[in-house]
Request: fold
Amino acid sequence: MVTMDISKSNSKERLSLYNHLMKKMKFMEEDRIASFKNWQYSESDKCSVQKMAEAGFFYTGHGEDDDSATCFVCGKVLDGWESNDDPWEEHEKHAPNCRFVNTHLIQDDYSVEQLFNLAEVVVKAHLTKSFNKKLVSINNTADEVRDIIKNQSSY
Amino acid sequence: MPRTKINRNALSNKRLRENTADLEEILREYDIEVENSIQQLQSGYNKQMREITALFEELRSSCSDDILKTKIRDLKNVKDINELMVVEKMSNLNATLKDTCHKADEGYVTEAISNKSRITSGSENGSVCQKQGLELSQNISVIGSLRKTKTRRRSQSVSSIVQEKAYVTPGPRVMMTSSKGRTPLQQQNQQGTHTSRSKYRTPMSSALRQKAASVDRLNCITPRVNPNRPISLLRHARAGEAVFSVTGSPIVPSNICETTANVNIPVSDGVLSIRPQCIESGNLDPALMKKIDQKTLNHLLLLKKNLDIIMAGAGFKLNNH
Reply:
């Protein structure tokens, strides 16, 4: 969950908070590369760690057999990778509306302004996701409680 | 002895009805509770979204265009990050001062401003403007009647005033244009042609004479308002413009941008406006200080740093004298 606690007065603390958030979201390519610790494909393969990270994926698998990778912008999770899968193509095929894949740019080709814009989109998307999650959980709990009350009334 | 028979079924039905009514009431109350908590969540979400928007807006505005357009690849090649930060700080200050010149000049072309604008017109990248901004910060003068008297120059020929008034284009455009873009008339002005005035001349015409600002001169206040009637239009005061409260109600000159705190330092030919992106705090009452939220304090800290930079420049100049 994204929490933007910007009330911290110390600019260093604020900076470290932003750094922490960005690392958590795997916003920078370096962080995405670092997430692939035991990736089964080598650098020469089409879906190498470098290319996966360039295409916006970071590793979210649990265990050795799980090769799930998630996009840091759209949150699309893909697994079942094969050595000749092109991460960009797969990304575009499965998540055509992703803001990142639509630009067809790797991180180095982004301008600072474009990166800021992307960061804004990513942070807002995370916030919206956590908001929707909470909303669903409130509604579910409310439905359960209503059922209990209704059952109570039928006795 | 017979007694009235109480129908047990009816009694239990009544109890059941009451019970059902109670539960419906509980259900209704619970629905309201749920609705409230959803609304709270929604408002918190909206607030956070606004904060994020403001944060990124601040981030973008705190970087110069050059930095914003730099590719990440090139940014990685910058060895000394401090170098970049210094450039960024300078360009920030530059932008502020450019903005200040723009605001100060808008529609209030005084002789002094015209002169400054003409000098700055020679600068192509605005660095001269920045230096002047530092100088200007020392020449803090009083706005209003005192400023008007200060700008009166006895040796000034009438014709040159007329020329300045008539032909000098507003400041920001002049400032932004290169030396090639100047009109012949401006170049003539710059050469310092001093046309002698006629021996017999009428005193300064009423149009040119600058009246001292005073509360008594209500005809100077635009738009003219009748305090007893509702006002149909709202106009914010511009930078450097005097604001009068006709009936004595408190006023805050939040003229430039309501969402940004700013410090307006009156200088000899306008107002030096230093504005970080932050909300307005304006009162130094200790009791009110506690009410200032942390975000504003952060912005004030930024403001203080900016002021320190300016004062450091001013102090350097003072020491030289």
The CA atoms of residues 225 and 259 of chain B lie 27 Å apart. Residues 96-193, 277-281 of chain B have pLDDT under 50 and may be disordered. The first strand of chain B starts at residue 263 and ends at 267.
